[in-house]
Design a protein that fits this description.
about 300 residues, alpha+beta, Jelly Rolls, Arc Repressor Mutant, subunit A, 2 domains, five-stranded mixed sheet, five-stranded antiparallel sheet, 14 helices, 10 strands, elongated
Length: about 300
C-alpha cells in the first residue's frame, strides 16, 4: 500500500526534498535539477496531500504525475496549477538527453495571500481546479514572460525582507496568474477545432442523456458528470464553453432542459409534474421555478399560450 503523507508548510516541503531552509516561511521557488528529480523518483510510492498552492513549470523531461483521480503526462514547456488539498504522486520521469533538466516550482501557503485582494479572488483563477491533463502549454515568448516574473519574486526573496516585500511578492504572483489567464485564453483560441469538437460532443451528450431517459433514472446532469463523460474537469469544461459560445456549462445544461421541457409541454399529454420527474427533477416546483426564470412564464402558462 502506498504511503500517505500530508504537507502543510513550506518548511516541510524543503525537508521532504532535503533542500536548504527556505528563505521565507510562506513561499519558495524550487528550481528543478537532476538531484531533485532523483529525490522525486524516490517518492514514487508516496501519495502526498499538499495543503499549499503550487505552480509547476516542466521542461527538458517527460513523465507523469498522478493528481486527483487522473495522471498527467508532462510535455515540453507546460505549466500545471495545483490547489491546496489535492493528492499528488510522482511517477517515472525521463530526462531528455539533448537538454538540461529545466523548470521550477513556485509554492506558497494560503496565509501569504489571505489578507490581500489575491486571497479574496484566488478562486477566480479556475485553472487551479483543472485536471492536470488540461495543463497550460507555453510558447517561447510566453516562457520568457513567465520566467521574468519568477525572477522578480526570487529577487524579493533573496533581498532584505522589509515592509514592502510581501506586497510586492503577492503582486507578482497575481501578475503571473493574470498572464496565465491570458495564455489559457490563447490556448482555447488556437485549439478552436478541438474545442468545437468538444462543444459538439457536449451538446450531443446532453441530447442523448435526455432522449434515453437517463435523466429520470439518474437525475439532472451536473457539470461534473458531463465533464467526466468528456474527460474534462468541470472548470475546464465550463471555461471552454464560455470562450467558445459565451455561455458556461451550467447555463448550457439549463438551456437543454428548457428546450426539452418545451417539447414535452407542447405534446400536451403529460402533467407538469410528470415532465419534471422525467427531466430529472426531484421536486416539480424546482422545475417550475427554473422554467419561469428562463422563459418568463410558468410551464402551465407556456402550454396554454402555445
Amino acid at each position: 500500500m502506498d504511503q500517505m503523507i500530508t504537507v502543510n508548510s513550506i518548511g516541510e516541503v524543503h525537508q521532504l526534498f532535503e533542500l536548504p531552509k527556505p528563505k521565507h516561511p510562506l513561499i519558495s521557488i524550487i528550481y528543478h535539477s537532476d538531484e531533485l528529480e532523483e529525490k522525486f523518483q524516490q517518492l514514487s510510492s508516496v501519495k502526498c496531500v499538499l495543503n499549499l498552492y503550487s505552480v509547476m513549470f516542466k521542461e527538458g523531461c517527460t513523465g507523469s504525475l498522478n493528481y486527483g483521480r487522473g495522471s498527467y503526462d508532462f510535455e515540453e514547456g507546460s505549466m500545471v496549477f495545483l490547489a491546496p488539498g489535492q493528492v499528488i504522486q510522482p511517477n517515472e520521469m525521463e530526462q531528455d538527453q539533448s537538454e538540461d533538466n529545466k523548470g521550477w516550482t513556485l509554492i506558497f501557503h494560503p496565509d501569504l495571500i489571505r489578507r490581500s485582494n489575491l486571497g479574496q479572488n484566488i478562486d477566480d483563477y479556475s485553472f487551479f481546479n483543472y485536471d492536470v491533463n488540461e495543463a497550460l502549454h507555453l510558447s517561447d515568448q510566453e516562457k520568457i514572460s513567465v520566467s521574468e516574473i519568477i525572477h522578480k519574486i526570487e529577487a524579493e526573496l533573496n533581498g532584505n525582507i522589509d515592509k514592502h516585500s510581501q506586497k510586492l511578492i503577492v503582486s507578482n504572483i497575481e501578475l503571473l496568474l493574470d498572464y496565465s489567464t491570458r495564455y489559457y485564453d490563447r490556448q482555447f483560441y488556437t485549439r478552436t477545432n478541438q474545442s468545437n469538437d468538444l462543444v459538439a460532443k457536449f451538446e450531443k451528450y446532453l441530447k442523448v442523456y435526455f432522449n434515453s431517459g437517463l435523466a429520470s433514472e439518474k437525475g439532472l446532469p451536473s457539470v461534473r458528470s458531463c465533464g467526466e463523460e468528456l474527460g474534462l474537469s468541470p472548470n475546464y469544461l465550463s471555461d471552454l464553453l464560455k470562450k467558445e459560445t459565451g455561455v458556461n456549462a451550467h447555463d448550457h445544461i439549463h438551456h437543454a432542459i428548457i428546450n426539452r421541457a418545451k417539447t414535452e409541454l407542447l405534446k400536451g399529454q403529460n402533467s407538469v409534474s410528470s415532465i419534471a420527474y422525467d427531466l430529472g427533477f426531484e421536486y416539480p416546483q424546482h422545475f417550475s421555478k427554473l422554467f419561469k426564470n428562463k422563459t418568463g412564464m410558468s410551464p402551465k402558462d407556456y402550454r396554454l399560450l402555445n
